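A.,

Following up on our hallway conversation. Structure tokens first:
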């Protein structure tokens, strides 16, 4: 750390001798980054790298980049692109300072770029449906079709593998607008036979879709990590020193948070077995605060159940806290702090104030039942992605005030580059599956509650 501070001090000292221009150099190094107080990073929206959760930017690479920017005392500016090729182009022209995305080094690119091992080394894995017909080893890929995105980092490895097994594997390059996430979804749905993904992503998807088989490795472990220009010598040395000093437990925490499925929540006895009029130990506060938003208290209880399973002390992997699972930044806007974040009544009161705010966001939706669906979706995901979906719905001729068949449909499309790169979309990639299920499940639980004798 002392050496990093020395580099920064020396560079800032040099700055006083060169104040003739404010133009950002095409090939800027750490000096210009510090002078402009902004680190420009490029990445790609994705379920692990960079995304918005309840309107808060998150992701493994985002959190890591934010940590590095803080270490050199600059702000972080994230630029998103649609492909790895575009990332390299923007880095080479100087529009960004580094690529914060798990890139695979190649001999040719090392002539121009420097690579940093910011991710755990991982092999490429075949992604297929398991069962008796599943391929058991790479040699069985002869005469088989394997689909990967055009300009995919996996392409070089698959070409080498094809030569190793005899040259009869058919590598099908999907359109530029198709992401690896979409290809994996097509394998899950039976539309495609095979694709390939590096271990962390393949393992994450297998946890959510147990029918996937990722047992066949398509080569040895490869380095995955960030990229800078070779010419950015001071920046490169600073990143190297920062990575050397980084605590391994911090990396492991990020991996646990973003690359492993969380199975924290257990079935709660109040939902599973209760035959009494009581839904939870907190019914009195649901009844007290629900009138503030003109909701049936049992709908508020259903939200709390699906948020925390009525556990007032729970913290999600993303950092949401308490019965109503409010993010700290959101809770702070509605009266929560470190002292009362886990107090059941205070958390419910803050959750109700947040719901009141969300109802105001959708004030122009006149139908109460429809508005409730939008509020529930936004409570789960944040309004940003829902507002994006409303804009898409309107653009493509749907009704932006109707959930099913309209806004829900276009929310689902936000995992498709053709749609999340649309000019009307501000917040990029989104995996809508959990949010769409959340709306259905909360309403189903609510109807279960009202069917009981109270």
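Then the amino acids I'd put at each of the 454 positions:
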């Amino acid at each position: 750390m002392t050496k990093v501070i020395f580099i920064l001090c020396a560079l800032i000292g040099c700055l006083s001798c060169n104040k003739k221009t404010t133009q950002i150099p095409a090939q800027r190094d750490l000096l210009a980054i510090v002078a402009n107080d902004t680190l420009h990073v490029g990445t790609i929206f994705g379920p692990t790298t960079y995304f918005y959760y309840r309107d808060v930017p998150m992701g493994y690479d985002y959190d890591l980049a934010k940590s590095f920017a803080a270490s050199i005392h600059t702000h972080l500016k994230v630029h998103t692109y649609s492909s790895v090729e575009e990332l390299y182009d923007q880095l080479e022209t100087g529009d960004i300072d580094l690529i914060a995305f798990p890139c695979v080094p190649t001999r040719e690119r090392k002539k121009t770029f420097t690579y940093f091992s910011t991710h755990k080394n991982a092999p490429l894995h075949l992604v297929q449906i398991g069962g008796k017909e599943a391929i058991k080893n790479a040699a069985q890929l002869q005469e088989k079709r394997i689909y990967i995105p055009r300009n995919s980092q996996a392409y070089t490895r698959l070409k080498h593998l094809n030569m190793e097994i005899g040259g009869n594997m058919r590598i099908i390059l999907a359109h530029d607008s198709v992401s690896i996430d979409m290809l994996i979804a097509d394998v899950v749905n039976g539309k495609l036979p095979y694709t390939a993904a590096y271990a962390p992503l393949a393992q994450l998807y297998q946890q959510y879709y147990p029918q996937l088989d990722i047992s066949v490795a398509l080569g040895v472990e490869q380095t995955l990590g960030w990229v800078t220009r070779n010419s950015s010598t001071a920046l490169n040395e600073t990143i190297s020193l920062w990575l050397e000093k980084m605590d391994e437990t911090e990396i492991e925490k990020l991996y646990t948070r973003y690359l492993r499925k969380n199975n924290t929540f257990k079935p709660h006895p109040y939902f599973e077995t209760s035959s009494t009029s009581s839904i939870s130990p907190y019914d009195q506060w649901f009844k007290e605060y629900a009138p503030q938003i003109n909701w049936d208290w049992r709908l508020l209880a259903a939200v709390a159940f699906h948020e925390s399973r009525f556990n007032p002390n729970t913290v999600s992997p993303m950092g949401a806290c308490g019965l109503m699972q409010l993010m700290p930044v959101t809770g702070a806007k509605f009266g929560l702090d470190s002292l009362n974040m886990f107090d059941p009544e205070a958390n419910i009161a803050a959750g109700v104030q947040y719901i009141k705010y969300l109802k105001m966001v959708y004030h122009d939706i006149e139908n109460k039942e429809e508005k409730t669906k939008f509020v529930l979706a936004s409570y789960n995901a944040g309004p940003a992605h829902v507002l994006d979906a409303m804009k898409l719905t309107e653009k493509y001729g749907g009704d932006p005030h109707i959930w099913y068949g309209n806004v829900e449909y276009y929310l689902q499309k936000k995992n498709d580059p053709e749609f999340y790169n649309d000019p009307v979309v501000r917040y990029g990639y989104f995996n809508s599956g959990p949010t769409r299920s959340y709306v259905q499940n909360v309403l189903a639980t609510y109807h279960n509650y009202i069917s009981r004798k109270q």
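Residues 344-361 form the longest helix (18 residues). Curious whether your intuition agrees with the design.

B.
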